[in-house]
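Re-run with default settings, no changes from the original entry. Doing this only to confirm the output is reproducible before filing.
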Amino acid sequence: MSSTCWISDEMRVAVVGTGRIGGTLGRAFAAAGHEVTFGSRGAETDAVVGGTSARVASIGDAVESAEVVVVAVPGDAVDEFVAAHGQRLGGRLVLDATNRVGAPVAHSARLYGALPGVRYARAFNCLGVENLADSLYADGPADMFFSAPEGADRATVEELISAVGLRAVYVGDGQADVVDGVLRLWFALAIGQRRGRQLDFRTLER
């Protein structure tokens, strides 16, 4: 596989994780016309496709068939996923949507960065799932802040963010900590200040 993931009309996307975040993202990607395979450890998760063109396969098969791998497993399952499937990730863009809740660092950039040939992006982790399922506010779509390599990988992540209905806001390559700063702000306002999970951000420019 090429070391560059060129965006096309249809991308092959593996979504590893069939919970609320993985399911919401995968169905949105499929509805936007991308070829989506959910990676699952259980056949009972077939319902996650929700009437879209997505399919469910084993995690290994989903990763093998993909150009982009979106990881949306619980934070305490990331190490197990990488130990079992890390060798399959070479030559692919890994989009880390998982938060290691309670850990000093929420992202897994260092872990994926140690795998040969893996390109790393960080997105879809800094808002509640409610805003992934319904991103449109009265005055337009909410923002999704993300980090990814410049060039085609950046364009790929922007396309996937747009597929969910959010507006992509790029913060640079290698900036997972910056994206996670938005995560901490969201928790401080939505949970700490009890403003509710239907809370999002918008970048204003003059």
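The longest strand covers residues 35-40. Residues 12-192 form a domain with the Rossmann fold fold (CATH 3.40.50.720).
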